[in-house]
Amino acid sequence: MDYNKNSLLNLTEQTSFLYKQSIGRCSCKRRRNQSVHCRRRGFRRQYRRSTYGFGEKVVAFAGQIRRRWRHGLKSLFPMEDISVMGIWELLPHLYKIRMKLKQTVEAALRFKPHAVVTVDSKGFSFRLLKQLRARYSRQGVDTPAHFHYVAPSFWAWKGGETRLKGLANFVDHVFCILPFEAEVCRSNGLGATFVGHPVLEDALELRLDKDTNTYKYERNGKDFRSQHGIPQGTTLIAVLPGSRLQEVTRMLPIFSKTTELLKGSFPQLSNVMLVAPNRHVEKYIADMSRQWPVPMTFIPGGSMHLKYDALKASEAALCTSGTAAVELQLAQLPSLVAYRAHVLTEWLIRYKAKVPYMSLPNILLNSSVIPEALFDACCPTTLASSLRELIRNKELREQQIVSAEKVIRLLRPPPLESPVLDSRCASIPSMIAASTLLYYRK
Fold first, then answer.
1. How far apart are CA 302 and CA 205, in angstroms?
2. Residue 373, SS3?
3. Distances, alpha carbon 337 to alpha carbons 121, 320, 322, 344, in Å
4. Which residues, listed in sequence order, are joined to residue 270 by a DSSP beta bridge?
5. HSE-up of 200 (CA within 13 Å, CB side)?
6. How far is 237 from 246, CA to CA, in rounded Å?
7. CA–CA distance from 85 to each of 88, 89, 224, 350 (Å)?
8. Cβ partners under 8 Å of residue 156, min gap 6
9. Which H/E stretch holds residue 74?
C-alpha cells in the first residue's frame, strides 16, 4: 500500500494524545525544554524516513481536549454525545448512539483514510471498525489499517479472553496500556504492543526540564493553598466524581453527604474538586455546588499543572473508580475509591467479573492497598469512616505512597528499539504508539 502523503482518520476519546507530538514541526524555541524538543525533533526525522509519511489532515470526534490540537483537527461531534457507561444506563441513549455511529462510518468513507485509530469506548469503536471493514470489503478496495488504543478488559470478565480471536477480523493492531495485555492478545492472533499508560504522559508534560527516566511529580502544595486562599491548618480533601454525566450525577450527592458527615471530625474542612472537561458535567457540578456543605475550590479539567498542584496540596482523595485512581498514584496521594451504578449493572458486574478489585492500582498489585467502597458499601457513612481512618493513620498513608511508586513502574513500557528515537524518547507512550503506527505493515 502507498502511504505517501496520507490522510489520517483519528477517532479518539483523548484525541491529542497520540498525534500532538507525532505529526508536525518542532515548535521549541528554547533548548531548555530539551525533552520536548528531543521528542519532536526525533519524530520529524522519523516522519521523513518513514515509509508512511503521514500528513497533517485529521478528522475526529473529540471531547473538549480538542482545544489542545494545533494540527487542524475537525471534530465530527463532541465525544460527550456518546460517553455512556453501564448496561441499563445505555438504553436511553441507544438511538442517538446508532445515529452517531452511522454518521461516523459515512464520514470515514468520504474521508478515505489510510489509517483509522479508535481509542477506548470499545462498544462504539469496535462496531465502527467492523462496519468500515465490511463496507470496504464489499467495495473491493484496499482497507485502511485499523488500530485500537486501549485493549478491551478481557482479563476482568469471565470468558473475556475467548472474545479476542474475533477482533482480528477488523482490528489490525492494539496499543495496550497494561503490561500483561500484549502477550495475551498476540497469543490469540491479534497484533499488539505495550505502549505504557497515558498517565505517564502527564508526568512528562509536568516535568519538561527533568529526566524522563523517572515518573514522579514533585511540587509544593503550600503554594497552591496560598494562591487559592485556603487557610493554614485546613484539612483539604480532593474530590474526583468522574468524567461521565451519569456517574457524576450518581456519585456527587453521595460525596456531598459524606463531606457533611466529616465536618464534625475536621472543623476546618475544605474540598478541592477536579471537574472533567465535559460541558454536561461542568453544568451539573456548578448547580450542585450551591448546596455543597464546605468551602470548595474548583479545578477545570483542562489545567494539568493546576490539577496536580491541587492533589499535592490535599491530605486525601475521594474518587469515583476510573482513570483518576491512576492519576492519584502519580500524585502519590492516599485515596479512597468509590463506585455505584444502576442495580442491574451492579448485578452484572458481580456475576461476570473475575477480578476481586475495581481500581486499576489494586488490580495491578493484586492487593487491596487502596480501600474500595463499591455498590451497597458505597454510602456516606462508610465513606466518611474510611476517609477519617485514611487521614489519621500514618501507616495506611505510607503504604499507599510506597505502592504508588510500584504501580507507576508497572505501567512504564520497556524502551522501544528504534533507529530514530534516542533513549530519552524510547520509553514515552505516545512515541512508541506513533512509531508503531508509522512503520506498521499489514
1. 13
2. strand
3. 22, 6, 9, 21
4. 236
5. 26
6. 23
7. 9, 7, 33, 16
8. 353, 354, 355, 363
9. strand 73-78
Burial class (CB in 10 A: 0-12, 13-18, 19+), 74: middle
CB-CB contact of 172 with 435 (8 Å): no
CA 297 to the chain's CA centroid: 23
Q: For the purposes of burial, counting CB atoms within 10 Å of the CB of 104, is it exposed (0-12), middle (13-18) or buried (19 or more)? A: buried
Amino acid identity at 198: P
CB burial string 203-241: b at 16+ within 10 A, e below: bbebbeeeebeebebebebeebbeebebeeebbbbbbbb
> Hey, how many other C-beta atoms are within 10 angstroms of the C-beta on 423?
10
Mean pLDDT in order along the chain per 10 residues (442 residues): 34 32 34 36 39 48 45 63 64 77 88 87 90 90 90 91 89 96 94 94 70 60 91 95 92 98 95 92 93 95 86 96 94 96 89 93 96 97 98 96 95 83 80 88 78
For 263, the grid coordinates are 465536618
At residue 77, φ and ψ (nearest 5 deg) are -165, 160
Q: Which amino acid is at 411?
A: L
Task: Report d(CA 436, CA 54) in Å as an integer.
Answer: 13
